Amino acid sequence: MIKDYIYLKTPKIASLITQINTYRDLFEKIPKLPHIQENLLRKSTLKSSLYSARIEGNRLEMTDVEFGGIQNREKREVFQIFDGLKFARSFKGRTTKEFILELHQRVMDDLTAELGRFRTEPSAIFNTAGVAIYVAPSAQKVPILVGKWLQFVNRRNSNLCDIAITHFVFEKIHPFLDGNGRVGRILMNWQLQKLGYGFAGLISFEDYLEQNRNNYYSTLAIEKKDITEFVEFILETVAQSAQKVILQLQKQEEGKIEDILLPRRAEILAIIREHQVVTFDQIHRRFLSVNSRTLHYDLQDLVRKGLIRKRGATRGSVYAPK
After folding, report:
1. What is the CATH number of domain 2-250?
2. For the chain, how long is the longest CA-to-CA vector?
3. How far apart are CA 116 and CA 113, in angstroms?
4. Beta-carbon count within 10 A of 151 CB
5. Which residues are CB-contacts of 232 (< 8 A; sequence separation ≥ 6)?
6. In the chain, count of helices (H) and strands (E)?
């Protein structure tokens, strides 16, 4: 099926590849502070997870998921993609059928009946009017097509354009009844990392895809053999997302203090700003797995940085934003 598609090496493609390589070179030269990068990595992974879910119709915003909270179906969708991304980034082997099925199991747990296995029945993509706009290959062909897809993905000398092609073909194979987009985007994220364009996990291209969802879907719906337009769109997605990473890192020294806090301290600060007056016991109830001494140290650090103030000096003391 991969051989069914071609793309032209247009001036736009050449320009976008040059841009992406330039951003990668810049990324390597920018000094990185570990605690800042850890915070940015968590935010970037959460952003990728949220926007991948939003592409599929999830309505949550970043503020709904940034600090956890009560889990409902939409939040579960986001955090299961988060788990899938973390699993993929830690996976060091070749792309295999078992790897893809494991991703599906993590991402779609409790969200689909056919969990962690390829579909065994026909599938199609429908538009909002309920009309089938694409009929996927028969279920009997899925294992064979996935096998050929894996051969292409695992061959040597892959390039950025190949990543676009493999994403296009994976979605056309439509190996699952549900979860193809979510799993496909994690695979694309992982392929970028393997090819050396992962930007240490800080790139979040799903944000751009969600903002340009109509272009994403329309180029995925191309029926002709020439998919140059889709390749250009994916390269544009990577270039725009890489540029965002560079701008983030360049501003890391001149940003607000709260932008470089460790994740738990950032969450404590957000809780205090939301409730205005907070006791230590309220903070402790939110972080039951963290010992009291560590939480006191977190609060002292926020006080030292001038982000919050402590009122009172006894057990009845409270914390408020500055």
Report:
1. 1.10.3290.10
2. 73
3. 9
4. 11
5. 10, 12, 13, 16
6. 14, 5
Whole-angstrom CA distances from 37 to 30, 34, 179, 259 are: 12, 5, 30, 11
Separation CA 312–CA 70 (nearest Å): 32
Alpha-carbon distance values, 104 to 78, 129, 178, 179, 184 (Å)? 14, 28, 9, 7, 10
Percentages helix, strand, coil for the chain, rounded to the nearest 5? Answer: 60, 5, 30
- Predicted confidence at residue 74, as pLDDT, reads 94
The CATH number that domain 257-321 falls under is 1.10.10.10
The residue whose two tokens read 């972080």 is 287
∠ CA 25-184-130, nearest 5°, is 135
How many residues are present in the chain? 322
Do 245 and 37 touch, CB atoms closer than 8 A? no
Q: Domain coordinates of the chain in residue numbers?
A: 2-250, 257-321
Rounded Cα distance between 80 and 97, Å, is: 20
User: Which pLDDT band, with edges at 50, 70 and 90, does 312 fall under?
Assistant: confident
Q: Which long-range contacts (CB under 8 A, 24 or more apart) does 291-299 make?
A: 295/268, 298/264, 298/265, 298/268, 299/268
Label residue 260 by pLDDT band (50, 70, 90): low
CA angle (51, 214, 222) in 5-degree steps: 115
Q: Is the pTM here over 0.90, yes or no? A: no
